[in-house]
Specification:
Length: about 270
């Protein structure tokens, strides 16, 4: 019986040992499965979040031309077009005046030296040829004076005064058109402002509510037309003042040159 009991106890111990060995690796396997599941979930969330990050819109840098075009359309072509025409036509007259006045500029001192050199020799025809070949209103005035030398100094002075007035009028041609467009550009802008405000109030009346979304369209038209009208007026006004300064400089040259020209004729009077 003792031997049988020993054998039974030994077999029970072996069975229990096998059960423990079989149950021992089960816990790490479960933990490994949990770790794999967690890793897969993190990977799936990362993959799922990746498209959302890639879909985010990138900031677009617009050129000045594109922004200006958008604002022109938003302001309304019906009111922005007259302002644009004022700018185009006004700048056309400005460019024409700049070219004309620059071509009318003359080195008066050099011209007076050449005229005095010919007149001192009695060569009035040579002096007239010199004035004819020199561009500008000063040379034209001198030519008119030399053309009447034989009629006396009094007639020469009258001719210089009369033709000087003609040349001054030519210098100021188209200046009134520039001043007109300076006045029209902001006027069209303010007109668009008034129309935009009326449109905004009409939208409020239709909607029965005052909200930014209701009045935004009309207010945008009002503000944009005013801004563009004022910008056009400022640009044209700057060029207009430059042209006035240039004309005043040429008129001063004409007056000083005429006085010096008469002094030359009196000094060399025969």
């Amino acid at each position: 019986m003792s031997i049988f009991g020993l054998l039974t106890f030994t077999s029970l111990n072996g069975v229990m040992a096998q059960d423990k060995a079989a149950n021992a690796p089960a816990e790490p396997a479960t933990e490994q499965v949990d770790e794999q599941t967690t890793d897969s979930m993190v990977a799936d969330s990362t993959v799922a979040a990746a498209p959302e990050e890639s879909v985010a819109p990138a900031p677009v840098n617009k050129s000045f031309h594109q922004v200006l075009k958008e604002k022109y359309i938003q302001g309304g072509a019906g009111w922005m077009t007259p302002v644009l025409l004022c700018l185009i036509l006004g700048m056309a007259f400005v460019i024409e005046r700049i070219i004309y006045l620059n071509m009318a500029t003359t080195n008066v001192n050099r011209l007076l030296e050449g005229v005095e050199e010919h007149v001192s020799k009695g060569d009035y025809n040579g002096a007239k040829e010199l004035c004819r070949d020199t561009r500008g209103p000063v040379a034209s005035i001198f030519f008119q004076g030399l053309d009447r030398v034989d009629e006396g100094l009094e007639n020469v002075e009258k001719a210089i005064t009369s033709y000087g007035g003609v040349q001054m009028a030519r210098l100021e041609i188209n200046m009134t058109w520039i001043s007109l467009f300076i006045a029209l550009a902001p006027s069209f802008g303010f007109l668009g402002t008034v129309v935009g405000m009326v449109q905004a109030f009409d939208d409020i009346e239709v909607a029965g509510d005052i909200s930014p979304t209701v009045v935004a369209g009309g207010m945008k038209v009002a503000l944009l037309t005013t801004i563009f009208g004022l910008i056009v007026a400022i640009i044209l006004q700057i060029f207009y003042n430059y042209l006035l300064t240039k004309i005043e400089s040429l008129v001063a040259q004409m007056e000083d040159g005429s006085i010096s020209f008469m002094d030359i004729l009196v000094k060399n009077k025969k």
